[in-house]
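P.,

For your records, the input lines for the assembly:
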Amino acid sequence: MSTLGSLVPGTASGPASARPGPASRGRRWTGTGRMARLELRTGWIGLTVWPLAMAGLVWATAAGARGLYLQPAARAVYGATVGVDPASIAFNGRGYDLGTLGGITVNEVGFFGLLFLPVVAAHLAIRHTRAQEDSGRTELVTAARVGRSAPLAGAALVVALALVLTGLLSALALMANRLPLAGSVYYAAALVLHMIVYLGVGLLAGQVSQTARSAHGLALGAIGAVYLVRALIDGRSWDATWATPMGWLAQVRPYGDLRIWPYVALAALACLLCLAAVVVCGRRDLGAGLVTPRPGPAVGTRRLTGPVGLLWRITRGTAYVWGAGTVTWGFALGLLSQETSRMFDTNPGLAKAFGGDASQPEQLMTSVAAVLVALLSSAVAVQGMARLGGEEASGRLGLAIAGRFGRTRWWLSAVGLLAGQAGCVLGLGGLGYDLGAALASGRVGTIGRGLTACMEYAPAVVLTAAISALLLSASLRIVAGAWAVFLWSAVVAMLADTLRLPAWSRDLSPLHHIGRVPFQAFDGRGAAVMAGLALVGIAGSVLLLRRRDLAAG
Amino acid sequence: MRQSLSAGGSAEQPLIVASGLVKRFGSTTALDGLDLELDAHQVHGFLGPNGAGKSTTIRAMLGQLRLDAGRLTLFGLDPWAQAVAVHERLAYVPGDVALWPGLTGGECIDLLGSLQGRFDHRRRDELLERFDLDPTKRTRTYSKGNRQKVALIAALSTDAELLLLDEPTSGLDPLMESQFQSCVREAKERGQTVLLSSHILGEVEALCDRMSIVRRGRVVRTGTLQELREHTLTSISVSTPQPITQLRGLPGVTVVSERPSPGGVRTLAKVTPAGLPRAVQVVSAEPMSALTVQPPSLDELFLDLYRDDAPAVAQAAR
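Structure tokens returned:
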């Protein structure tokens, strides 16, 4: 605890009573260094664990690529299959220099580099700015000798530092897998700049929105939108890679013909976003965003007063956003469904290389879309559980169940509602996909395939929800562990082959037990077992919850 | 209309000057032409019902809100444009204190004190003892009252010229409340100025030299407690065989009711301070069987000011 010494300078630092002269005008940045130190002191765990996790993924990807594609012949097959697969190009971005191990590694980092790393960067930015303001701590520090922009600047510095650390570790991870030194440094630098762009997105979202929750929603929405636009551009081979920052990242080509302009463009965009955040910060009231909340209903209707009604009311905003996001996501993937068919038409041998049924080539895309929708749906369930934990921690749960409704009824309503929301997201994603696919192919006969594939994941999603429920009912402190289940499912779904994960570790992902429907056959027995386990888990969570103390209220 | 009862004649420049402050949040108007002056070396009470605009005013003084209209200066400086220069000279305690869950109470006090700047470590240790706070506990385990103590100790340990206290004692027990009161008195003796927003009338009565009462974003009264009392009404209740006809029509007297009672008539009248001598003369000339003369209690005074749209004085002047 002696680290606080660095936060508290000696009183001998000078007479604080010096009369402020005209030179004191502004001073928006006073205290930036101390705010940075405070954020480091109170948030160091997240600021070190995230860089380690992200660099660890880069290391595992590079190691996996090295194991699979050390032989030039294997690299040639990679270039002829994955390298031309529109689904892969849509998800990982355009691949370059696939004849080299470095190029393959960059391509394999693609998916999480484009989606996961930006999400982490934006999350860290919001966590250290708007979340602090939400709690009221920013009000306390800016009442002292801390300028209006200092908390923002301090947080930006600290998060940027964590991202640079990620880059350093990633460069080391790449070199540890004997990739060329120069290319590894170039690529790590590009990854850092790309993440700093989303640090800027997170900072701006934190300034514009009034709560950390809506800031997260805004930032995730922005990242998802950029990703989708890029996926469409890359998947349909449009000549417009310059249109998104995610497209710029692929153009760096670190292990081949290095290009400088993407670095410049990424840095410029990052500066622009941070500048915008600073401008908004200097103009708005503390605790407010740019949009003033509208007055709502003065009367609580009967629908609000039951446990389901109350839970729906507090989660419906998030549910609508998830629903709209999943439909859009599914629709965009559906638009890409024909690209795979086209690839198989021109090269019939490829279908066998992907290990599936060549008679229905578009099902490769359907299966990718279905597993992604299932991941989104799992996220809805996990996030909802974390939200319930928040209700309890804030004491609102204690208040709600001090009335007519007991714990069990409240809990079962909550679990049921969340499972329902997750199920709706599955269905909406499937429908969106079917619509997109119908539009792309001009045939309506295929409608229903995406929906069926998505719904087949329902037992796995419900099991994920049940695991989260078990964690939450055991203790409020470990509910965040449910995100580990989600993250692992995502890793297995997207990176299992890249990382050469052993079979037992793949089995830890609920989604993995369903099989890659409809490209591979639906595992009915696995689904039934998972549904049974989910029911047992939910019943167990009821028992656990009845035995433990409420955390607050 | 706002009635200023300020005694005036202060040689020093007021520490805080607010005139015509307006702040809107969307369609809600939080401050609607608020005027306030605060002289140095005083304890000034800031009272008003919930949502009257007290916290909004204090947050504007901290430069955390941008005003839509009006002029506000602290120490002659603009708190929005020169926030840090203003903050160097004040310390703030919010009504709802949020702390860093990973830090201990002692760390939070040192952090806040050092961010303010003029931190007196010896006084900090003394206050820790007086407020009976364990500084080694993580703030995660603190109750509302203990979090409030952290912010109070941090603020009271500084030699800031101005203490902005926004309902600082809403979570404290009576023992700590009395510690708080003696701390504020000592602060005043040291020459510090205090703006104390509070709902606890006993605290305001015990501590404040002057007070301002806010309602719907405006200051409806400013003055010493004495001055506030002067503008309130004394009730006279008298029982006489016959109605006192002379009482009606006296300046400053309102007859509220005349009811039949066992010995004749019982008259209830409200009288302004100016009308009191004449009214008592008239009443004492009657053959009365019972008489009570009651000044308004502090509670009544505030309830009137909080509640009433037509102030009592205006009513009596009819």
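Two observations worth noting. Chain A has two domains: 35-290, 302-553. The radius of gyration of chain A is 25 Å.

Regards
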